[in-house]
Amino acid sequence: MSRRILAIGLQACALVLAVYPWLLGGVRTDEAKYLLNIPYPQPPFGRWIIGMTEFLPFQELLWRLIIASLLVHAVFLIWKISAKCGTFARLFLCAAWLLSAGVLLQMGTIMMAPVTALQGLLLVALAMFLPLKKDQWTSFFIGLLWFASLFTAYQAVLYLPLAVEALRRTKTSIFTQILYILIPIALVFVYALSNPLIIASFVNAGTENETIPFYAWAFYLVRLWLSGGSVILTVLGMWGMLRHRRFGLLGSFILLSAFCFISFREYYDILFTPLFIGGAILLLQQRKNRSLPFLWLTAGLVFCTAFFTWKYPVIYSPGPARSVMQEIQAAGGTGSILIAGPFGHQWQYESRFPIERYRSGALLSAQAAICLIKCEGIETSGWQKVDLYGVEVWGKGSKQH
Amino acid sequence: MLSLILPTYNEAQNIRALLKEISHVLEGISHEIIVVDDNSPDKTWEVAQSGKNVQVIRRIGRRGLSSAVVEGFAAAKGDVLAVMDGDGQHDPKILPTMAALVQKNHGLVLGSRYIEGGSVEGWVESRHFMSRVATNFGLLASRHRVSDPMTGYFALHQSLFRKIKRHLRPRGFKILLEIISWLPADAEIVEVPLIFRLRKAGKSKLNAKIELEYLWQVLSLLLKGRGKAPQMLFGILMILTLIAFAPRVWNLRLLYLDPDIRAKVEERLRQEEQWLLSDLAVLEVHEDWMKIRHRSHIRGADISACYVARYTSSVLHPCPDAS
Fold first, then answer.
1. Does B242 fall in a domain?
2. Is residue B240 a part of any domain in this protein?
3. CATH number for B15
4. Quick one: which of A142, A298, B278, B282 has the most CB atoms within 10 Å?
5. Does B297 contact chain A (CB < 8 Å)?
6. ipTM beyond 0.95?
């Protein structure tokens, strides 16, 4: 009964965290990529599943809710794998997962990083804590999880040491380990080669920080560590990792750190959180650590999360794309919509008409032009200008917006 | 002591001569013979009782070769358990060799038709082919590679049988396949050549029902995680994934291998300045032209079209195979 009440309570939290960004009125460019199944930069599995629901008018809310729900209910897995810790330690670990900045600030988003983090948490559980049957089907399902993770998001490859450790626990042959681990990696590489835009985005991501000084890179990395576990979980997790020197955890931590060093994104902090949870469980399994002041630690965690939320807030509000597009489409025109200037994929998501880059020659077949920068030649085209939510929009003829 | 199990059904015409032959071969060797008969209408169980050193188990209401063998093993007192067909097609002369090998390595010894020195008398080509297919299919469920997992002529040590008997689900004709699937990885297995003789009298029990039972036996062993079913399934999934993406990579190879062509492709794509790069997919790259697909990603059905673009022209032509 109490478990059911807890589940309902957690689901209510997930609902709040999903509804809040939805109410703000729009998606971010990265979220739009998955909602529209745009084939870069991530592999197809996750975005293909999300893209299948494109026909649903509430697609955005649905996936915000699904991802938020998966993140909150992961506490049941954490409770299970921390069985050897004391009760207060287990409660602290569950709270740490829910309240760490890395996880909390991603709840309600439609991104692959939280999905990868959940897959990482599952791998942590399989690699170190869950009792495993040493048979062929167990190693098959671990291989399948690994394959699905890689084809959901490339960053899953950073959890390779965890996958190896999980497979080793099933006492499978070396040949089988190679089959289940390396072949999927090779295949995701083949997939990347099938879309040149993906390779280009890799190169771009790897070189975009070239001009940033070394100390700035180091600062960003440390920031990700600290926000991933809201300092408290970070310290406990790293302490546990270093003390117990488990290959899966340490190896993944090193790979992830090296990756973030080269390609910083704020939302990568959540990828560290499963590793910190694993390290913290190893630490808190020791009897002497069961009498730590968990209440104070939880309070400290909440304080750090509040700090990170204040200092590095998530910008949910994606701008006026939804409002502008709704107005344009309400005018009842047909034809493409032209946009001048750099813009994100959320403009495509909000549109039921093809989006093209602005050229004066394309005005004949277009219904509207959105000028985020100056639209060359539009003043003499006979089109009329309106200001929609601070955005300069031009439409044909005398139709009123 | 050697305990030899003879499962029988309607072998009254063969059993007497067979028992005589066995007794002659095993003279001087401590042994017992257990005939397990499934209540044959031709009273094979009655004929068998005339043999020397023979214990007869007449099974009423139970049928099946595999279950007969397991029941015979359970009743056996010897430390070497052997089984052969009751129709005389298995040559008893190799029994002493098999028994000695089992005593030595406490493992499994099987009479193989498919190793050097072994053969099958009187089969037509199609029967040979079907046997080969069935043999290879059966090997999928086994972690031990043997040449003849379907032979009905084998011997194993009592201690090995005790280790695996709780796993055995005796069904159909081929109990050896079940036994091999459950043997520990370090079990010793030896094969000795067997000449599979022509049946002297009576008729073969092999029919479609038996074949289907065999198929089901292999599948259920695979589903229980015996053999390599999970690896095979995973391998099939990997191959299908490769088939899905490899042709596209092949069609784009010039893009990755030839910097001049890469530069031409980039320049040509830049000319389509009205389109978003994320809406463009390069499908094929050739020396003078490329094929691209433009898909407008929007809410609702995407609008998609295929084009052929020459590097030296700004015109886009619809793909020839586009409908």
1. no
2. no
3. 3.90.550.10
4. A142
5. yes
6. no
Structure tokens given for A262: 């080269």
Mean pLDDT along residues A329-347: 90
Are residues B69 and B168 located together in one domain of the fold?
Answer: yes
Banded pLDDT at A312 (limits 50, 70, 90): confident
Q: Which tens digits make up the pLDDT trace of A252-269?
A: 999 999 998 888 788 899
Lowest mean pLDDT among A384-388, B18-22, B60-64: B60-64
- Residue B274 has its nearest CB partner, among A135, A180, A359, at A359
What pLDDT, in 10s, does the model give residues A103-140? 988 888 999 999 999 999 999 999 999 998 887 889 99
Q: Which of A347-356, B106-115, B121-130, B202-211 has the lowest mean pLDDT?
A: B202-211
Range of the domain at B192: 2-228
Q: Where are the domains of chain A?
A: 2-311, 321-395
Q: Are B218 and B263 contained in the same domain?
A: no
Contacting residues for A6 by C-beta, under 8 A, at least 6 apart: none
Q: Are residues B262 and B223 in the same domain?
A: no
Helix (H, G, I), strand (E, B) or coil at A197: helix
For residues B211 and B214, what is the distance between their CA atoms, to the nearest angstrom? 5
Do B137 and B21 sit in the same domain of this protein? yes
Smallest CA–CA distance from B281 into chain A, residue: A195
* Whole-number pLDDT of residue B60: 87
Listed residue (A23, A106, A55, A65) closest to A274, CA to CA: A106
Give the largest CA-CA distance in chain A.
Answer: 79
Render B203-214 in DSSP notation, one character per residue: -----HHHHHHH
SS3 (DSSP) at A354: coil
Nearest-by-Cβ selection for B231 from A179, A195, A350: A179
Q: Which of A336-340, B61-65, B113-117, B279-283 comes out lowest in average pLDDT?
A: B61-65
What is the pLDDT, as a whole number, of residue B206?
67
Contact B278/A176, CB-based, under 8 Å? Answer: no
Q: Are residues B35 and B93 in the same domain?
A: yes
- Interface probe for A, chosen from B297, B303, B304 (most Cβ of A below 10 Å), is B297
Contact across the interface for B281 and A195, Cβ inside 8 Å? yes
Is residue B259 assigned to a domain? Answer: yes
**Chain A residues with CB-CB distance to B under 8 A?**
33, 36-40, 54-55, 135-137, 139-140, 143-144, 147, 176, 179-180, 183-184, 187, 190-191, 193-197, 336, 345, 348-357, 359, 362
Give, to the nearest 10 degrees, the angle between helix A112-124 and helix A44-51.
120
pLDDT digits (tens, 9 = 90+) for A211-258: 777 888 888 899 999 999 999 999 999 999 999 999 999 999 999 999
- Which residues of chain B does A195 touch, with a Cβ-Cβ cutoff of 8 Å? 281
Strands (E), chain B: 2-8, 31-37, 54-58, 80-83, 108-112, 119-120, 154-157, 189-193, 195-196, 280-285, 289-296, 303-310, 316-318
The answer to the question of residue B323 being in a domain is no
- Count of structural domains, chain B: 2
Task: Please tell me the predicted confidence (pLDDT) of residue B323.
Answer: 46
Torsion, Cα A23 A24 A25 A29, to 10 degrees, reads -130
Q: Are residues B308 and B175 in the same domain?
A: no
Average pLDDT, chain B: 86
pLDDT value for B226: 62
Q: What is the pLDDT confidence band of residue A50, given thresholds at 50, 70 and 90?
A: very high
Angle at B175 between CA B104 and CA B47, to 5 degrees: 90
Rounded to an integer, what distance in angstroms lies between the CA atom of residue B139 and that of residue A158? 37
B162 and B195 part of one domain: yes
- Closest by Cα among A147, A195, A120, A132 to B249: A195
Measured distance CA(A191)–CA(A151) in Å, rounded: 9
